[in-house]
Design brief:
single chain, mainly beta, Methylamine Dehydrogenase, Chain H, four-stranded antiparallel β-sheet, 2 helices, about 0% helix, VCBS repeat-containing protein, Integrin_alpha_N, glycoprotein, Int_alpha_beta-p, signal
Length: about 475
Amino acid sequence: MNRVPALIITAALTFTIGGAVSPATAYAATCVTGADGDFDGDGLRDRAVAAPNGADGGHVVVTYTSTGTTTVIDQQTAGVPGAGADGDLFGFALATYDNNGDGCDELVIGGPGEDVGGKPDAGSVWIVPGARGGLNTAATTAYTQDSAGFPGAVEPSDLFGYALAAGLTGAQPYLLIGSPGEKLDDGYAEGQVYYLRAAAIVTLHQDKPGVADDSEPGDWFGETVAATPTHVAVGVSGENAGAGAVALFTHALTADSLTPLSTVGQDSATVSGAGEAGDAFGGGLSALPYRPTGVTATGTLLAVSATGEDLGAAVDAGLVHTLFVDSRGVVTQLAEYKQSAPDVEGTPETDDLFGGVVRLADTSGGAYATPASALLTVGSAGSEGSHPGTGAVQVFRLAGAPGDGDVWIAPGHAGLPAEGWNDHTVAGSTPEWLYLPGWSDAGAVVFGLKWSELLAGGSVRAHVWPAGDDFNVTGVL
Protein backbone atom coordinates (compact mmCIF):
# COMPACT_ATOMS: atom_id res chain seq x y z
CA MET A 1 0.00 0.00 0.00
CA ASN A 2 1.62 3.19 -1.16
CA ARG A 3 -1.27 5.61 -0.75
CA VAL A 4 -2.32 6.11 2.66
CA PRO A 5 -15.90 7.80 3.04
CA ALA A 6 -34.34 4.72 4.88
CA LEU A 7 -36.74 4.25 2.32
CA ILE A 8 -38.55 1.26 0.90
CA ILE A 9 -37.54 0.67 -2.71
CA THR A 10 -40.49 1.59 -4.90
CA ALA A 11 -38.89 1.62 -8.33
CA ALA A 12 -36.71 -0.80 -10.29
CA LEU A 13 -34.57 -0.53 -13.39
CA THR A 14 -36.09 -2.01 -16.51
CA PHE A 15 -32.86 -3.62 -17.66
CA THR A 16 -29.98 -5.61 -16.24
CA ILE A 17 -26.30 -4.93 -16.91
CA GLY A 18 -23.72 -7.58 -16.20
CA GLY A 19 -25.83 -9.55 -13.71
CA ALA A 20 -27.41 -8.73 -10.36
CA VAL A 21 -26.26 -8.25 -6.81
CA SER A 22 -29.00 -9.54 -4.55
CA PRO A 23 -29.58 -7.45 -1.44
CA ALA A 24 -29.36 -9.29 1.86
CA THR A 25 -32.60 -10.66 3.21
CA ALA A 26 -34.21 -8.28 5.72
CA TYR A 27 -33.42 -9.52 9.22
CA ALA A 28 -36.28 -7.63 10.86
CA ALA A 29 -39.25 -5.60 9.70
CA THR A 30 -39.61 -3.36 12.74
CA CYS A 31 -36.85 -0.80 12.14
CA VAL A 32 -37.70 2.88 12.55
CA THR A 33 -36.76 4.83 9.42
CA GLY A 34 -35.32 8.30 9.27
CA ALA A 35 -31.78 8.30 10.73
CA ASP A 36 -28.70 7.76 8.58
CA GLY A 37 -26.29 5.30 10.11
CA ASP A 38 -28.95 3.70 12.29
CA PHE A 39 -27.87 0.06 12.36
CA ASP A 40 -30.30 -1.24 15.01
CA GLY A 41 -33.46 0.47 13.80
CA ASP A 42 -34.31 2.53 16.88
CA GLY A 43 -34.33 5.87 15.04
CA LEU A 44 -30.94 7.02 16.38
CA ARG A 45 -27.67 7.31 14.49
CA ASP A 46 -25.10 4.77 15.69
CA ARG A 47 -21.31 4.97 15.51
CA ALA A 48 -18.81 2.89 13.51
CA VAL A 49 -15.07 3.40 14.09
CA ALA A 50 -12.53 2.01 11.63
CA ALA A 51 -9.13 0.72 12.76
CA PRO A 52 -7.74 -1.02 9.66
CA ASN A 53 -4.04 -1.44 10.45
CA GLY A 54 -4.05 -4.03 13.21
CA ALA A 55 -2.31 -7.39 13.12
CA ASP A 56 -5.74 -9.03 12.90
CA GLY A 57 -6.23 -7.45 9.47
CA GLY A 58 -8.20 -4.55 10.88
CA HIS A 59 -11.52 -4.16 12.64
CA VAL A 60 -14.53 -1.88 13.08
CA VAL A 61 -15.93 -0.94 16.48
CA VAL A 62 -19.67 -0.25 16.50
CA THR A 63 -21.37 1.58 19.36
CA TYR A 64 -25.18 1.61 19.53
CA THR A 65 -26.39 4.99 20.69
CA SER A 66 -29.45 4.04 22.70
CA THR A 67 -27.78 1.31 24.78
CA GLY A 68 -24.09 2.23 24.67
CA THR A 69 -23.37 -1.38 23.73
CA THR A 70 -20.13 -1.87 21.81
CA THR A 71 -19.24 -4.67 19.43
CA VAL A 72 -16.12 -5.38 17.37
CA ILE A 73 -16.46 -6.66 13.80
CA ASP A 74 -13.53 -8.23 11.97
CA GLN A 75 -12.86 -11.25 9.79
CA GLN A 76 -12.76 -13.45 12.86
CA THR A 77 -16.37 -12.52 13.65
CA ALA A 78 -18.78 -15.40 13.04
CA GLY A 79 -20.51 -14.98 9.68
CA VAL A 80 -17.98 -12.50 8.24
CA PRO A 81 -16.26 -14.10 5.21
CA GLY A 82 -12.48 -14.28 5.09
CA ALA A 83 -9.65 -14.72 7.57
CA GLY A 84 -7.99 -11.58 8.86
CA ALA A 85 -4.29 -11.14 8.18
CA ASP A 86 -1.85 -8.29 8.59
CA GLY A 87 -2.25 -5.83 5.73
CA ASP A 88 -5.87 -6.63 4.82
CA LEU A 89 -6.91 -3.08 5.84
CA PHE A 90 -10.39 -4.21 6.88
CA GLY A 91 -12.12 -0.90 7.59
CA PHE A 92 -9.89 1.32 5.44
CA ALA A 93 -13.12 2.74 4.00
CA LEU A 94 -16.63 2.80 5.48
CA ALA A 95 -20.08 3.66 4.19
CA THR A 96 -23.66 3.16 5.33
CA TYR A 97 -27.01 2.97 3.55
CA ASP A 98 -30.29 1.05 3.68
CA ASN A 99 -29.70 -1.44 0.88
CA ASN A 100 -32.63 -3.77 1.56
CA GLY A 101 -35.32 -1.23 2.45
CA ASP A 102 -36.10 -2.50 5.96
CA GLY A 103 -35.36 0.81 7.70
CA CYS A 104 -32.07 -0.34 9.25
CA ASP A 105 -28.87 0.83 7.61
CA GLU A 106 -26.26 -1.62 6.38
CA LEU A 107 -22.58 -1.13 7.25
CA VAL A 108 -20.25 -1.31 4.24
CA ILE A 109 -16.59 -2.08 4.96
CA GLY A 110 -13.72 -1.79 2.50
CA GLY A 111 -10.57 -3.89 2.77
CA PRO A 112 -8.33 -2.89 -0.17
CA GLY A 113 -5.37 -4.90 1.13
CA GLU A 114 -7.25 -8.21 1.14
CA ASP A 115 -5.55 -10.97 -0.85
CA VAL A 116 -8.01 -12.77 -3.13
CA GLY A 117 -7.18 -16.07 -4.79
CA GLY A 118 -3.51 -15.61 -4.01
CA LYS A 119 -3.44 -12.14 -5.59
CA PRO A 120 -2.12 -9.61 -3.08
CA ASP A 121 -3.98 -6.38 -2.42
CA ALA A 122 -6.77 -7.29 -4.80
CA GLY A 123 -9.30 -5.99 -2.28
CA SER A 124 -12.71 -6.91 -0.96
CA VAL A 125 -15.88 -5.22 0.34
CA TRP A 126 -18.19 -6.54 3.06
CA ILE A 127 -21.84 -5.56 3.60
CA VAL A 128 -23.17 -6.21 7.10
CA PRO A 129 -26.98 -5.95 7.24
CA GLY A 130 -28.61 -3.74 9.85
CA ALA A 131 -31.27 -5.32 12.02
CA ARG A 132 -33.51 -4.49 14.96
CA GLY A 133 -31.27 -5.05 17.92
CA GLY A 134 -27.96 -4.70 16.05
CA LEU A 135 -25.98 -5.52 12.93
CA ASN A 136 -26.60 -9.06 11.70
CA THR A 137 -23.03 -10.22 11.12
CA ALA A 138 -24.23 -13.76 10.39
CA ALA A 139 -25.74 -12.46 7.13
CA THR A 140 -22.63 -10.58 5.96
CA THR A 141 -21.95 -10.64 2.23
CA ALA A 142 -18.47 -10.16 0.72
CA TYR A 143 -17.83 -8.87 -2.79
CA THR A 144 -14.69 -9.01 -4.90
CA GLN A 145 -14.16 -8.32 -8.58
CA ASP A 146 -14.75 -12.03 -9.17
CA SER A 147 -18.25 -11.87 -7.65
CA ALA A 148 -21.16 -12.65 -9.96
CA GLY A 149 -22.10 -9.71 -12.17
CA PHE A 150 -18.96 -7.65 -11.55
CA PRO A 151 -17.20 -6.59 -14.76
CA GLY A 152 -13.48 -7.30 -14.82
CA ALA A 153 -11.48 -9.74 -12.75
CA VAL A 154 -9.39 -9.92 -9.60
CA GLU A 155 -5.80 -8.79 -10.15
CA PRO A 156 -2.91 -7.98 -7.82
CA SER A 157 -2.94 -4.44 -6.38
CA ASP A 158 -6.39 -3.47 -7.71
CA LEU A 159 -7.20 -2.08 -4.23
CA PHE A 160 -10.91 -2.78 -4.64
CA GLY A 161 -12.64 -1.13 -1.66
CA TYR A 162 -10.09 1.68 -1.23
CA ALA A 163 -12.93 4.25 -1.30
CA LEU A 164 -16.68 3.91 -0.68
CA ALA A 165 -19.78 6.07 -0.95
CA ALA A 166 -23.42 5.09 -0.62
CA GLY A 167 -26.87 6.57 -0.33
CA LEU A 168 -30.20 6.98 -2.08
CA THR A 169 -31.01 8.51 -5.43
CA GLY A 170 -34.76 8.86 -5.56
CA ALA A 171 -35.92 5.76 -3.68
CA GLN A 172 -33.10 3.53 -4.92
CA PRO A 173 -29.99 2.72 -2.87
CA TYR A 174 -26.62 2.94 -4.61
CA LEU A 175 -23.07 1.95 -3.69
CA LEU A 176 -19.79 3.23 -5.15
CA ILE A 177 -16.58 1.19 -4.77
CA GLY A 178 -13.24 2.70 -5.73
CA SER A 179 -10.54 0.48 -7.22
CA PRO A 180 -7.75 2.99 -7.90
CA GLY A 181 -5.05 0.38 -8.52
CA GLU A 182 -6.95 -1.14 -11.45
CA LYS A 183 -4.95 -1.80 -14.60
CA LEU A 184 -7.14 -1.28 -17.65
CA ASP A 185 -5.00 -1.10 -20.79
CA ASP A 186 -1.74 0.70 -20.18
CA GLY A 187 -0.48 0.00 -16.70
CA TYR A 188 -0.89 0.04 -12.94
CA ALA A 189 -3.17 2.47 -11.11
CA GLU A 190 -5.22 3.74 -14.01
CA GLY A 191 -8.19 3.10 -11.73
CA GLN A 192 -11.91 2.58 -11.98
CA VAL A 193 -15.05 2.76 -9.86
CA TYR A 194 -17.89 0.24 -9.54
CA TYR A 195 -21.44 1.56 -9.25
CA LEU A 196 -24.17 -0.75 -7.90
CA ARG A 197 -27.86 0.12 -8.04
CA ALA A 198 -30.83 -2.26 -8.17
CA ALA A 199 -29.89 -4.90 -10.79
CA ALA A 200 -27.14 -2.83 -12.39
CA ILE A 201 -23.39 -3.09 -11.83
CA VAL A 202 -21.46 -0.71 -14.08
CA THR A 203 -17.97 0.76 -14.09
CA LEU A 204 -16.69 4.33 -14.37
CA HIS A 205 -13.27 5.18 -15.77
CA GLN A 206 -11.60 7.63 -18.10
CA ASP A 207 -11.86 5.48 -21.22
CA LYS A 208 -15.67 5.61 -21.12
CA PRO A 209 -17.42 7.72 -23.79
CA GLY A 210 -17.88 11.34 -22.73
CA VAL A 211 -15.35 11.21 -19.86
CA ALA A 212 -12.52 13.69 -20.30
CA ASP A 213 -8.88 12.55 -20.64
CA ASP A 214 -7.73 8.96 -20.95
CA SER A 215 -6.90 6.23 -18.45
CA GLU A 216 -3.16 6.37 -17.82
CA PRO A 217 -0.82 4.69 -15.35
CA GLY A 218 -0.73 6.57 -12.08
CA ASP A 219 -4.03 8.43 -12.54
CA TRP A 220 -5.54 6.83 -9.40
CA PHE A 221 -9.09 7.26 -10.68
CA GLY A 222 -11.30 6.22 -7.76
CA GLU A 223 -8.85 7.03 -4.97
CA THR A 224 -11.70 9.16 -3.58
CA VAL A 225 -15.43 8.98 -4.29
CA ALA A 226 -18.34 11.08 -3.04
CA ALA A 227 -21.98 11.33 -4.01
CA THR A 228 -25.34 12.96 -3.31
CA PRO A 229 -28.79 12.02 -4.60
CA THR A 230 -28.08 14.07 -7.77
CA HIS A 231 -24.37 13.70 -8.54
CA VAL A 232 -21.36 11.38 -8.33
CA ALA A 233 -17.80 12.73 -7.97
CA VAL A 234 -14.60 10.73 -8.49
CA GLY A 235 -11.16 11.98 -7.52
CA VAL A 236 -8.29 11.49 -10.00
CA SER A 237 -5.40 12.97 -8.05
CA GLY A 238 -2.71 11.52 -10.34
CA GLU A 239 -4.10 13.06 -13.53
CA ASN A 240 -1.71 15.23 -15.58
CA ALA A 241 1.45 14.36 -13.68
CA GLY A 242 -0.33 14.67 -10.38
CA ALA A 243 -2.03 18.00 -10.99
CA GLY A 244 -5.28 16.13 -10.34
CA ALA A 245 -8.91 16.36 -11.36
CA VAL A 246 -12.44 15.42 -10.31
CA ALA A 247 -14.79 13.64 -12.72
CA LEU A 248 -18.51 14.40 -12.32
CA PHE A 249 -21.45 12.20 -13.28
CA THR A 250 -25.21 12.03 -12.81
CA HIS A 251 -26.90 8.87 -11.53
CA ALA A 252 -28.49 8.29 -14.95
CA LEU A 253 -27.35 4.90 -16.22
CA THR A 254 -26.05 4.39 -19.72
CA ALA A 255 -25.41 0.99 -21.31
CA ASP A 256 -22.39 0.28 -19.15
CA SER A 257 -21.68 3.37 -17.05
CA LEU A 258 -23.15 6.59 -15.65
CA THR A 259 -23.83 9.75 -17.63
CA PRO A 260 -20.74 11.99 -17.49
CA LEU A 261 -21.12 15.72 -16.81
CA SER A 262 -17.64 17.21 -16.82
CA THR A 263 -14.15 16.92 -15.39
CA VAL A 264 -12.86 19.85 -13.35
CA GLY A 265 -9.43 20.84 -12.09
CA GLN A 266 -7.43 23.92 -11.30
CA ASP A 267 -7.11 24.65 -15.01
CA SER A 268 -10.90 24.85 -15.33
CA ALA A 269 -12.31 28.31 -15.96
CA THR A 270 -14.49 28.12 -12.85
CA VAL A 271 -11.76 26.94 -10.45
CA SER A 272 -9.11 29.27 -9.05
CA GLY A 273 -5.40 28.55 -9.36
CA ALA A 274 -3.53 26.59 -12.00
CA GLY A 275 -2.99 22.86 -12.36
CA GLU A 276 0.62 22.04 -11.53
CA ALA A 277 2.43 18.74 -11.23
CA GLY A 278 2.00 17.31 -7.76
CA ASP A 279 -0.94 19.48 -6.65
CA ALA A 280 -3.06 16.31 -6.16
CA PHE A 281 -6.39 18.08 -6.72
CA GLY A 282 -9.09 15.52 -5.86
CA GLY A 283 -7.00 13.64 -3.29
CA GLY A 284 -9.48 14.79 -0.64
CA LEU A 285 -13.18 14.83 -1.52
CA SER A 286 -16.49 15.28 0.30
CA ALA A 287 -20.05 16.05 -0.84
CA LEU A 288 -23.42 17.24 0.50
CA PRO A 289 -26.82 18.04 -1.01
CA TYR A 290 -26.82 21.85 -1.00
CA ARG A 291 -28.79 24.98 -1.85
CA PRO A 292 -26.93 28.30 -1.95
CA THR A 293 -28.80 31.45 -1.00
CA GLY A 294 -31.35 32.34 -3.68
CA VAL A 295 -31.24 28.94 -5.38
CA THR A 296 -34.45 26.87 -5.37
CA ALA A 297 -33.15 23.57 -6.77
CA THR A 298 -30.89 21.29 -4.74
CA GLY A 299 -27.47 20.61 -6.18
CA THR A 300 -24.20 19.28 -4.76
CA LEU A 301 -21.65 20.98 -2.54
CA LEU A 302 -18.15 19.57 -3.10
CA ALA A 303 -15.06 20.09 -0.98
CA VAL A 304 -11.93 19.25 -2.98
CA SER A 305 -8.40 19.45 -1.64
CA ALA A 306 -5.09 20.00 -3.40
CA THR A 307 -2.65 19.05 -0.66
CA GLY A 308 0.38 19.44 -2.90
CA GLU A 309 -0.35 23.09 -3.69
CA ASP A 310 2.63 25.39 -3.08
CA LEU A 311 1.86 28.73 -1.44
CA GLY A 312 4.75 31.09 -1.97
CA ALA A 313 7.88 29.43 -0.59
CA ALA A 314 5.83 26.88 1.35
CA VAL A 315 6.02 23.66 -0.66
CA ASP A 316 3.03 21.32 -0.32
CA ALA A 317 1.25 23.76 1.97
CA GLY A 318 -2.12 22.76 0.51
CA LEU A 319 -5.50 24.34 -0.09
CA VAL A 320 -9.18 23.38 -0.40
CA HIS A 321 -11.84 24.49 -2.88
CA THR A 322 -15.59 24.42 -2.34
CA LEU A 323 -17.57 23.97 -5.55
CA PHE A 324 -21.29 23.94 -6.30
CA VAL A 325 -22.71 21.65 -8.97
CA ASP A 326 -26.21 22.88 -9.81
CA SER A 327 -29.15 20.79 -10.97
CA ARG A 328 -28.08 21.33 -14.62
CA GLY A 329 -24.52 20.18 -13.91
CA VAL A 330 -22.96 23.64 -14.08
CA VAL A 331 -19.96 23.98 -11.74
CA THR A 332 -19.11 27.20 -9.92
CA GLN A 333 -16.54 27.87 -7.22
CA LEU A 334 -17.85 29.10 -3.88
CA ALA A 335 -14.58 29.74 -2.03
CA GLU A 336 -10.92 28.85 -1.68
CA TYR A 337 -9.58 27.91 1.77
CA LYS A 338 -5.93 28.28 2.67
CA GLN A 339 -3.96 29.43 5.68
CA SER A 340 -2.71 32.52 3.85
CA ALA A 341 -6.25 33.86 3.39
CA PRO A 342 -7.29 36.94 5.43
CA ASP A 343 -8.17 36.16 9.05
CA VAL A 344 -7.66 32.40 8.64
CA GLU A 345 -5.72 31.06 11.60
CA GLY A 346 -2.35 29.49 10.93
CA THR A 347 0.46 30.14 8.47
CA PRO A 348 1.30 28.15 5.32
CA GLU A 349 4.38 26.02 5.95
CA THR A 350 6.24 23.47 3.89
CA ASP A 351 4.62 20.03 4.16
CA ASP A 352 1.52 21.26 6.01
CA LEU A 353 -0.59 19.22 3.55
CA PHE A 354 -3.63 21.33 4.42
CA GLY A 355 -6.60 19.35 3.10
CA GLY A 356 -5.12 15.91 3.66
CA VAL A 357 -8.61 15.11 4.91
CA VAL A 358 -11.75 17.12 4.16
CA ARG A 359 -15.21 16.54 5.61
CA LEU A 360 -18.48 18.38 5.00
CA ALA A 361 -21.30 18.31 7.55
CA ASP A 362 -24.84 19.66 7.58
CA THR A 363 -25.77 20.66 11.12
CA SER A 364 -29.45 21.01 10.18
CA GLY A 365 -29.81 17.28 9.59
CA GLY A 366 -32.29 18.08 6.81
CA ALA A 367 -32.61 17.04 3.19
CA TYR A 368 -30.04 19.61 2.08
CA ALA A 369 -27.53 22.00 3.58
CA THR A 370 -27.51 25.78 3.24
CA PRO A 371 -24.74 28.31 3.86
CA ALA A 372 -26.09 28.68 7.41
CA SER A 373 -25.89 24.95 8.20
CA ALA A 374 -22.90 23.68 6.19
CA LEU A 375 -19.49 23.20 7.80
CA LEU A 376 -16.14 22.33 6.24
CA THR A 377 -13.54 20.53 8.35
CA VAL A 378 -9.95 20.36 7.08
CA GLY A 379 -7.10 18.29 8.46
CA SER A 380 -3.44 19.35 8.14
CA ALA A 381 -0.80 16.71 8.56
CA GLY A 382 2.32 18.81 8.69
CA SER A 383 4.39 21.04 10.90
CA GLU A 384 1.61 23.37 12.11
CA GLY A 385 3.65 25.50 14.45
CA SER A 386 3.86 24.05 17.94
CA HIS A 387 2.27 20.73 16.91
CA PRO A 388 4.80 19.12 14.53
CA GLY A 389 3.84 15.64 13.44
CA THR A 390 0.35 15.86 14.91
CA GLY A 391 -0.91 18.67 12.69
CA ALA A 392 -4.16 20.47 13.32
CA VAL A 393 -7.81 20.57 12.29
CA GLN A 394 -9.71 23.67 11.19
CA VAL A 395 -13.45 24.15 10.89
CA PHE A 396 -14.93 26.72 8.51
CA ARG A 397 -18.48 27.99 8.13
CA LEU A 398 -19.76 28.16 4.57
CA ALA A 399 -21.54 31.42 5.33
CA GLY A 400 -19.21 34.38 4.96
CA ALA A 401 -15.53 34.55 4.05
CA PRO A 402 -13.18 31.66 4.98
CA GLY A 403 -11.71 33.62 7.87
CA ASP A 404 -15.07 34.52 9.42
CA GLY A 405 -15.00 32.51 12.64
CA ASP A 406 -12.82 29.57 11.64
CA VAL A 407 -12.10 27.24 14.58
CA TRP A 408 -8.60 25.88 15.25
CA ILE A 409 -8.38 22.43 16.88
CA ALA A 410 -5.13 20.95 18.14
CA PRO A 411 -3.85 19.21 21.29
CA GLY A 412 -4.88 21.29 24.28
CA HIS A 413 -7.47 23.22 22.25
CA ALA A 414 -11.26 22.89 21.98
CA GLY A 415 -11.63 20.48 24.88
CA LEU A 416 -8.93 18.03 23.70
CA PRO A 417 -6.24 16.89 26.12
CA ALA A 418 -2.72 18.21 25.59
CA GLU A 419 -1.60 14.59 25.17
CA GLY A 420 -3.47 11.71 23.62
CA TRP A 421 -4.50 13.09 20.25
CA ASN A 422 -3.42 10.54 17.70
CA ASP A 423 -2.56 12.63 14.64
CA HIS A 424 -4.00 15.08 12.15
CA THR A 425 -6.68 12.72 10.88
CA VAL A 426 -10.26 13.97 10.79
CA ALA A 427 -11.99 10.74 11.63
CA GLY A 428 -15.51 11.85 10.77
CA SER A 429 -18.25 14.43 10.99
CA THR A 430 -22.02 14.07 11.31
CA PRO A 431 -24.82 16.61 11.81
CA GLU A 432 -24.16 16.51 15.58
CA TRP A 433 -20.49 15.61 16.06
CA LEU A 434 -16.92 16.09 14.92
CA TYR A 435 -14.85 12.94 15.59
CA LEU A 436 -11.08 12.89 16.07
CA PRO A 437 -8.81 9.91 16.82
CA GLY A 438 -6.81 9.60 20.02
CA TRP A 439 -5.71 7.23 22.74
CA SER A 440 -5.90 6.61 26.46
CA ASP A 441 -4.54 4.09 28.92
CA ALA A 442 -7.31 1.75 27.79
CA GLY A 443 -6.25 1.88 24.12
CA ALA A 444 -7.43 3.73 21.06
CA VAL A 445 -10.35 6.10 21.48
CA VAL A 446 -12.37 8.59 19.48
CA PHE A 447 -12.92 12.10 20.81
CA GLY A 448 -16.31 13.58 19.98
CA LEU A 449 -16.84 17.34 19.93
CA LYS A 450 -20.40 18.63 19.70
CA TRP A 451 -20.88 21.19 16.97
CA SER A 452 -23.26 23.14 19.21
CA GLU A 453 -20.47 23.63 21.77
CA LEU A 454 -17.58 23.99 19.37
CA LEU A 455 -19.21 26.76 17.35
CA ALA A 456 -20.54 28.67 20.35
CA GLY A 457 -17.04 29.77 21.32
CA GLY A 458 -17.29 28.81 24.99
CA SER A 459 -16.05 25.75 26.86
CA VAL A 460 -16.04 22.47 24.96
CA ARG A 461 -16.17 19.00 26.50
CA ALA A 462 -14.53 16.16 24.60
CA HIS A 463 -16.62 13.00 24.79
CA VAL A 464 -14.74 9.72 24.50
CA TRP A 465 -15.65 6.37 22.92
CA PRO A 466 -13.61 3.16 22.58
CA ALA A 467 -11.98 2.28 19.27
CA GLY A 468 -10.31 -1.05 20.04
CA ASP A 469 -6.71 -1.66 21.04
CA ASP A 470 -4.86 -0.42 17.95
CA PHE A 471 -3.78 3.20 17.57
CA ASN A 472 -4.83 3.51 13.96
CA VAL A 473 -8.33 4.97 13.74
CA THR A 474 -8.92 6.29 10.22
CA GLY A 475 -12.63 6.93 10.03
CA VAL A 476 -15.92 7.26 11.90
CA LEU A 477 -19.44 7.13 10.55
